[in-house]
Batch of 2 targets.
Target 1
Amino acid sequence: MNNSHSGPAVPSETAGETAVDRRRHILTMVGPGTFWMVCFVALPLLLVVLVSFMQRGLYGGIEYQFTLDNYSRIFNPMYIKILWNSLVLSFITTLLCLILGYPFAYFVAKAPKRWRNILLLLVILPFWTNSLVRTYAWIMLLRTEGFINTILLKIGLVSQPLAMMYNETAILIGLVYVLFPFMVLPLITSIEKLDPALLEAAGDLGANPVRAFFGVTLPLTKAGIMAGSILVFIPALGYFFIPELMGGSKAMLISNLVKNQFLTARDWPFGSAISIILMAITLILIYLYFRNAGSKDKLEVF
């Protein structure tokens, strides 16, 4: 009798130890990441939010007095124009990356398997070099005494060097080059998941290749298009070194404005307020992505 009553205590103790070990294992796996996100993401963001409601000191410090003037200053026509120009330039950059990247991504996704890895390596290869170094390489190509102008002058196509630097075209070239892989990689993944049987069915129903592309391929790869567009548009708003180096003093984008407020004007509260506006725009775009392309139920053919 005693043996029969003492038997069940062992599984109970073992189950208790298993539950504790499981909680300890989960804490070990999640704890470091959570600690990192809280210390180096959440707390700095909270600090930026708090500083955005403070006042600038007389000599560039921070006076801890609550104010909304930093946000009201953003509605100054000059700053509104800078924000609008930044949004337009980021949109054009995203559109160019999509127009250039979709055919290339389709070619890579449909390439034979033995070539696909090589082509993917070519897409990833620019990440091996710092983007600032690659930007300086473009400066060497596009400047007045650069490689392109030197070749054009030697073969007689132009009589004087072309002004390819320090304008919005140069900024677009730099942004498209740096952000192109961010558009291509999601598109490749999305196109690879496309069921070839759907295209065959469209052809059997009388659809020509152009109609099959716009009616089947394009709608079913909308998730990749949306993901790539966000991955390009958001960094295009935040990259300040490309407009700084390739646009010169003629180009003032919102990213340069934030940098100048922190480093030159020493107006940290106003710079923080502009950063909060940019984060709000980013959150809106991410919300639209999850709303329009986050569900497989919305991926339908036309």
Target 2
Amino acid sequence: MEESKFEVNQTQISKKTTNTVQLEKIILYVALGIGAIASLFPFYWMFISATHSSGEIFSFPPKLLPGDNLITNIVNLNQQIGLGRVIFNSLFVTITFTIGNIIISSMAGYAFAKFKFKGRDILFFIVLITLMLPPQAKLIPLFDMMAKLDWVNSYKAVILPNLAYAFGIFLMRQNMLKVPTDLIDAARIDGCGEFKIFWKVVLPTMRPALAALGIYMFMFQWSRFMWPLVVLSSAKMKTIPVALSGLMGLSRIDYGQILVGASISTLPILITFLLLQKQFISGILSGSVKG
């Protein structure tokens, strides 16, 4: 009799536990759903509003379905800023910067991680210190340097100043520490030079970290506004963020054009991250623990 009561109590406890777990899952999924909607709705509203005119954007109740003004907004935007040239400028600057930064950061990270030389730790500390400098504090010295080099209003002035970015060097150095030193020594014994070891042995093991660095630097350069605004003066050299800022006129603002431009500016970042998000997360986490 007592055993049967014990079994009944165990069954009831098991059912209560199961119900509690299911309730917790439901609450968790509801919370995640609300968070996802809150995160994605601004993007949805931006893309939808890009298909409406300014008057329709601010109408009440708000329009949450696509309109028929997308082509008109694109044509008007192209007339205002020269959309093709602006997109080319942003793509050229961003892709060139990203490739150059990956090469320089990976080589510098490899040197800091695997070469022992006098002052290595002090030099690496100085590199990290540059991350603490406010970008605004560097604007005037950088502009003065670009003016003396006669690089103002050129691609070089936008690309080169941050090509050896401290965060990229730090990220690659942390990942390079995980490469076994015995593997590098074995390659040296086999007759490989340092440059060949770097390209043929070390870099192939760094693909997740390189993908993470590439995504980060692409997003960093694509969305930069202040420095290109300062150093680029002519309309034919402007990038998308700088060109869009010129649409904010004092008399009349066409929000349809602005939201089309914002949508075009956002799409490359969204697509790049969605396609490579696994590599990005893996690359960021792989350098968080030394071992």
